């Protein structure tokens, strides 16, 4: 019977805290040592692997998650790698049993797994965080060398490089963690195994019992996982949307500022000359240089131009060249672009133009237009600034990668602690109560007492509704056992009273025969001896249950109950009965059956006890060869109990004094029983009778009284 683990809650939390802090320090020491030596490694997972070896998911994932938060104090980008450390922590626990035994193939597999998570998955995360770029460093230089030898492209060469570097890093980390674990005192390891948080799993293995249905723990953790995931997705969505909107507003503000600066340096009275003479017009070159300086001031400004929008098309005043595209010449008339088509009426009326985002052959652009007006307020032309949004796209991807990484690591941490809390406070106590209930034994007083003791010692002290449920269930169980004990006591009293009444009634009937003596008791004992021997020999094993034997033995005294209807003259006649008298004597079997039937009718229910009593009373004078009475049944047509009583009744009659004869010697009685095997008696029952000869002789010598 399982028992809820008892532990000091304060000490359990304290031991967990100490282990987490120690492993965090170990991770930090590894990072500092790596920095002092100057290796292109990390060595920041030693404590994480040791936490897995010592305590499982709870400390391991906590250390993995918090290590990056602590490192983020001095290196903010480390925070975004929480999910990588958490993945390594989960993998470490999956390999932990093999690592403890230092199974070399599994150590290699563990190192490669850790390196894949840290190098490949971590490399992809780096690429996303840094805007589709791997940055700089030893791994990037190694990737360039690899790519020169085996051309595989910038992306895949960097992933391979990161993996190779991480293989070395994780091999060193794994070896150090295993060595520390092996050097720790066994007493400390045993102490940690006794804590409530030790090796709580977050991946549930389905048992045979729960294969077709979800367990309570699975349901609870699923609710936590779904709810936290939904919250996380909502947070990610709103964070990205907010970042996108704020960045777009910043881009718009920057573009508007650039357009205003250009607009303030273009004199309205010169616009007509700029259109007519272009670069030859006075002030054109200076204005174009100013526009170029404003454009160069921001890398996001893709195009800067000044257009006059007319019904016949767009008249170019200024259109700066870029590295990729040569600008249109002044005075040239071009077709409306997408934005001008969209707001053509506003352009033609000289109204304010709202910022517009387009995604066409020129790329993803934010276009801002600033009107240039004359003194009368008439719009002469528009200064246009197009901002490239490709940087915003990479920035959003970077933010998305950072937020998902951080939140996903946090979700795994929450999932782990949810599993611990549900396991410790709900699932395990409920399972223990259910297991104790399923194993509760009511068979004997001792078994009930032992089951109550185990139930009382489960020690469920969750301090909530689970404990209330346990207390109420324990109370009901104690009350039920008390009731069962009381019922059994009353039943035993009733059974003793019943057996006593049967014996007294049978004795009253048999006492009419002055030579009967202790026939009532001895035939019952003979039946029990024969039946027990048959069970031991495997004879009629399908029928011989303990319940059946008890029913036959307790009802045996009623086998001659029908003699109550036979007159004393016939019953105690000292000589041989006439044929008519014998016919009347034979009727006591049918009379016995009728008496039992009346008892059944009075009781209103046919108990097995009474069924066997009727079989004994009616058929105990039937013979195996079919020459008995009252029905002339043969073989196994005769009820088994009656076949047994036939042997017991005849043997006791042979060795007992009767009004019409002296007792036979016991040896002679045994010979007669043996001779009648297969004729008067069932051969198998005779065999059991002979096998129990010593016990039969002992019973025959006893003087029995009610």
Describe the structure.
This protein is an alpha+beta fold. It folds into three domains: 9-199, Arp2/3 complex 21 kDa subunit ARPC3; 242-396, PAS domain (Beta-Lactamase, 2-Layer Sandwich), CATH 3.30.450; 511-701, Hypothetical protein af1432, CATH 1.10.3210.10. It has helices at residues 9-37, 46-55, 57-71, 82-100, 104-129, 138-149, 153-183, 186-193, 216-264, 271-277, 284-296, 338-342, 344-349, 390-439, 445-456, 465-510, 519-537, 546-555, 568-571, 579-603, 608-619, 640-655, 666-675, 683-691, 693-701; strands spanning 301-310, 313-319, 333-334, 356-360, 363-373, 379-388. It has a six-stranded antiparallel beta sheet with strand order 3-2-1-6-5-4. A hairpin with a 2-residue loop joins strand 1 and strand 2. The longest helix is centred in the middle third of the chain and has 50 residues, at 390-439. The radius of gyration is 51 Å and the shape is elongated. The protein starts with 8 loop residues before the first helix and ends in a 5-residue tail after the last helix.
């Amino acid at each position: 019977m399982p028992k809820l683990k008892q532990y000091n809650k304060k000490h359990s939390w304290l031991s967990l805290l100490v282990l987490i802090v120690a492993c965090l320090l170990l991770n930090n020491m590894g990072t500092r040592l790596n920095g002092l030596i100057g290796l292109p490694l990390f060595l920041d997972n030693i404590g994480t692997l040791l936490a897995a070896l010592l305590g499982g998911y709870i400390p391991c994932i906590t250390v993995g998650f918090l290590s990056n938060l602590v490192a983020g104090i001095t290196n903010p980008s480390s925070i975004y790698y929480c999910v990588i450390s958490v993945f390594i922590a989960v993998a470490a626990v999956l390999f932990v049993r093999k690592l403890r035994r230092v199974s070399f193939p599994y150590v290699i597999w563990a190192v490669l797994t850790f390196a894949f998570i840290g190098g490949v998955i971590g490399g992809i995360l780096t690429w996303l965080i840094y805007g589709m770029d791997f940055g700089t460093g030893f791994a990037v230089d190694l990737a360039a060398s690899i790519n020169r030898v085996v051309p595989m492209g910038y992306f895949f060469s960097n992933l391979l490089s990161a993996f190779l570097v991480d293989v070395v890093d994780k091999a060193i980390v794994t070896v150090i963690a295993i060595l520390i674990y092996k050097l720790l005192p066994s007493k400390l390891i045993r102490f940690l195994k006794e804590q409530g948080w030790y090796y709580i799993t977050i991946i549930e293995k389905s048992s045979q019992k729960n294969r077709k249905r979800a367990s309570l723990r699975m349901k609870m953790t699923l609710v936590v996982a779904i709810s936290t995931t939904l919250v996380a997705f909502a947070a990610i969505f709103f964070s990205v949307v907010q970042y996108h909107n704020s960045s777009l507003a910043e881009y718009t503000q920057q573009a508007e500022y650039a357009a205003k600066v250009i607009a303030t340096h273009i004199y309205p009275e010169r616009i007509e000359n700029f259109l007519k003479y272009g670069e030859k017009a006075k002030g054109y070159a200076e204005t174009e240089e100013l526009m170029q300086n404003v454009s160069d001031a921001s890398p996001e400004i893709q195009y800067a131009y000044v257009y006059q929008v007319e019904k016949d098309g767009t008249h170019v005043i200024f259109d700066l060249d870029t590295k990729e595209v040569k600008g249109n010449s002044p005075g040239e008339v071009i077709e409306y672009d997408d934005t001008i088509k969209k707001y053509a009426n506003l352009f033609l009326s000289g109204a304010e133009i709202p910022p517009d985002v387009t995604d066409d052959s020129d790329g993803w652009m934010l276009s801002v237009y600033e009107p240039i007006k004359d003194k009368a307020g008439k719009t002469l032309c528009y200064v246009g600034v197009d901002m490239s949004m490709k940087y915003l796209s990479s920035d959003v991807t970077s933010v998305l990668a950072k937020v998902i990484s951080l939140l996903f690591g946090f979700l795994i941490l929450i999932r782990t602690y949810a599993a611990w809390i549900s396991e410790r406070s709900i699932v395990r106590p409920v399972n223990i109560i259910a297991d104790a209930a399923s194993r509760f034994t009511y068979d004997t007083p001792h078994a009930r007492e032992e089951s109550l003791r185990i139930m009382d010692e489960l020690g469920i002290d969750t301090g909530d509704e689970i404990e209330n449920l346990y207390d109420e269930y324990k109370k009901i169980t104690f009350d039920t056992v008390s009731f069962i004990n009381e019922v059994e006591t009353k039943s035993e009293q009733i059974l003793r009273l019943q057996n006593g009444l049967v014996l007294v009634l049978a004795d009253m009937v048999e006492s009419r025969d002055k030579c009967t003596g202790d026939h009532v008791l001895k035939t019952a004992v003979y039946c029990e001896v024969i039946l027990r021997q048959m069970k031991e020999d495997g004879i009629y094993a399908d029928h011989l249950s303990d319940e059946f034997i008890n029913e036959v033995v307790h009802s045996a005294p009623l086998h001659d109950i029908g003699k109550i209807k036979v007159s004393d003259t016939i019953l105690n006649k000292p000589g041989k009965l006439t044929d008519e008298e014998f016919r009347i004597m034979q009727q006591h079997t049918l009379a016995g059956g009728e008496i039992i039937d009346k008892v059944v009718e009075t009781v209103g229910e046919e108990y097995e006890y009474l069924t066997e009593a009727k079989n004994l009373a009616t058929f105990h004078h039937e013979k195996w060869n079919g020459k008995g009475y009252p029905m002339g049944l043969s073989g196994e047509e005769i009820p088994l109990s009656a076949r047994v009583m036939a042997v017991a009744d005849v043997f006791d009659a042979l060795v007992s004094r009767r009004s019409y004869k002296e007792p036979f010697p016991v040896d002679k009685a045994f010979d007669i029983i043996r001779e009648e095997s297969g004729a008067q008696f069932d051969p198998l029952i005779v065999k059991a009778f002979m096998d129990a000869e010593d016990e039969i002789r002992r019973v025959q010598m006893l003087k029995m009284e009610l």
